[in-house]
Amino acid sequence: MLDAYIPILAFFGICVVFAAGVPLLSAWLGPRKPSPEKSMPYESGVVPQIGARQRFSVSFYVTAMLFIIFDVESIFLFPWATIVRQLKIFGFVEMVVFIATLFIGLVYVWRKGAFRWE
Amino acid sequence: MTALIIVVGILAVVGAVGVVLSTQPLYSALSLVFSIGMLAILYLILNAQLLFAVQLIVYAGAVMVLFVFIIALLNPKAEDRPILDVRAVVAFVAVITITAALFATAHNGITYSGSNFRGAVVGASHNDQDPAYTKHAFDFKPADVNSGQAGNVQTVGGQLFTVFLLPFEITSLLLLVAAIGAVYLTRRVPKTEVDT
pTM surpassing 0.90? Predict the structure, then answer.
C-alpha cells in the first residue's frame, strides 16, 4: 500500500540532494574573493538604508488570516469533488450554501477595504 | 512499516524539541514546520490521506505563514535559554502525566460515535448496525476499514457531506465569523475616535 508513494519519496530525495548539492558545488567550484562591498546585504543594487529586522505592518497579518480562511474553504472542495456525482443534486446544493455563506464574508471583507493596500 | 512509524515519530519529536529549545523565534517556526511535516507523514502511514493533505496545506502552509507574520510583526529579540527551576519541573511532570494518559486512552480505544462516547478498536469506528451511519438516504457505501480505505478522500467526504452535514455547514459560519473578526480587529480607527 505504501509502495504507491515510492515515486513521491524519490521526488523528495532528489529535492534534498539538489538543494544540498547546489550550495556545496558552488562552495567547491566557485572562486572566493570577499570584500566589504560583497559582504553587504544585496538590496537590488541600492545601498541599504536601515536594517532588515524591522517590524512589519499588521496588513500582512490580515492578509495571512484571510488567506487561511479561504484556504480552509477550498480544502473542503477536494473531498466534495471526489464524490460529487454520488451525492447528486443534494451535494451541489450543500456546497452552494457553504460557499454562499463564505461569499458573504468575502463581500464584507472587500467592502471594508481589507484588500486595498495602503 | 512499524519501523517507519518509529523513525518518523522520533523525527517529529526532534522537531518539537527544536521548537522549545531554539532561542530565535524564526528557528522555532522552522522546527515546527519540520514537526508538522513529520506528523503529516504519520497520517499518511495510518491511511488518513485527506488529513495528510490538510495538515500540509493548512498547517504547514497557511498557519505557518501566519506565525511567521506574527514574528515579523512583533519582531522579538532572541530568547534566553530555558533554565531548570520549580516551574520547569512542574511542567515536565505535567507533560509526562498527560502523555501517559493519552497513551492509556489510545490503548483502550475511545471513539466518538455521534450520540455517545464508547470504547472501540481504534480505526474501526464505522459500524453498519450503527443508526448514525445507516439512516441517511444516499447510496454511499463507506469503504471497509480493514481494506486500508478508512481515511481516504472519498470515505471522509462521504461521511462529511451526509452524516456530518450540519457540522460542515456550521464550519462556513465559523469561517465567516473569523473573516469578519480579522477585519474588525485590525481596522483603521478614524482620527476623531482616537482624540475623544
Answer: no
